[in-house]
Amino acid sequence: MKKHISVFIFILLLVNSFQAQSWKFLRNEFSFGLGATSFLGELGGANKIGSHNIKGIKDFDFNATKPAVQIGYRRFFSQNIAAKVGFTFGQVSGNDAYTDEKFRKNRNLHFRSPIAELAIQVDYFPFGEYFGHIYRSNGVVGKRVNNISPYLFLGIGGFWYNPKAKYQGDWVKLRPLKTEGVEYKSISVAFPVGMGVKYAIDKQWSIGLEVGLRYTMTDYLDDVSTEYTDKSNEDAMTQYLSNPALSENDNASWTAPGQQRGSSKSNDSYVFAIFSLNYKLLKGRLNLPKF
User: 84 and 72 in contact (C-beta within 8 Å)?
Assistant: First the structure.
């Protein structure tokens, strides 16, 4: 009996040793993902004053959620550290019509914008990455290796955006209109930060979920940042898209030139939530024991 136990323990140690070294043969991973976006900025949101950052998750607006697609490549430098390069394309949007907060409801602004993001991030797997095998020996069930690998990430990237609003049935580019009298660029910097989890199907295939907030270096993702400007000398389209307010009677002055249109205290942010299918390239021959 003791001999059998000793052999069994030796097998488990051998398996764990192979498992610990297997990442060297599976350093490179490609992924394809589908998911959704959410916008954190001045427009739309819940029925209260909004926020641009992580505190603004409570301002999440399901009506403004849009689809996103991602392709990526990840390389492991150890069991715990990896770098991922990803290209994500999606759309963000916001609409004051979706909220009952009185100032934003009266402001009546809306927008949508494509987001094309190229970013690199560092992934930290605090418990390492697992491959999910079940080992058996002589009918005795061995230890089940954890299939689940959570991780945290932080990165930097660039993205292109192009806010538009609807006017008489057509979506019009807002940046050329200078609705606040400001000229801004259509390319900016983003700082992805978030968490994810992977579930190993076998040593090469896995599925995952990653949720990341993108802090940006622009407050014009939604074309709103500072105050109303006098557009009385502009064409009817520019006047409307700069100020489509529902102002009546005592609240007409809320959207007069010089009044607050947005808030420049914080830049805009957006969120990507991506479900992914991941495939590892096998380098050389990986001889994991099979039981």
Answer: yes
Asked whether the whole model's pTM tops 0.85, one would answer no
Taking only the tens of pLDDT, the chain with its 291 residues reads 555 555 444 444 444 444 556 768 888 999 999 999 999 888 866 655 555 444 455 555 667 789 999 999 999 999 899 999 999 999 999 998 888 888 888 899 999 999 999 999 999 999 988 776 544 444 444 445 578 999 999 999 999 999 999 999 999 999 999 999 999 999 999 999 999 999 999 888 999 999 999 999 999 999 999 999 999 899 999 999 999 988 765 666 888 899 999 888 889 999 999 999 999 998 755 554 444
Q: CB under 8 Å, gap of 24 or more: what pairs does 240-243 form?
A: 240/167, 241/165, 241/167, 241/172, 241/174, 241/177, 241/179, 242/177, 242/179, 242/180
Residues pairing with 210 in the sheet = 196, 274
CA–CA distance, 142 with 138 (Å, rounded to integer): 10
28-280 carries CATH number 2.40.160.20: yes
Distance, CA of 159 to CA of 92 (rounded, Å): 13
Q: List the beta strands (DSSP E) in 125-268.
A: 134-137, 140-144, 148-161, 164-167, 170-173, 187-200, 205-216
| Sign of torsion over alpha carbons 231, 235, 237, 238 | negative
**Distance between CA atoms of residues 88 and 69, nearest Å:** 6
Domain boundaries, the chain: 28-280
H/E element holding 8? Answer: helix 2-21
Task: Report the C-alpha gap between 172 and 91 in whole angstroms.
Answer: 16
State both tokens at 28: 């490179």
Burial (CB count within 10 angstroms: exposed 0-12, middle 13-18, buried 19+), residue 185: exposed
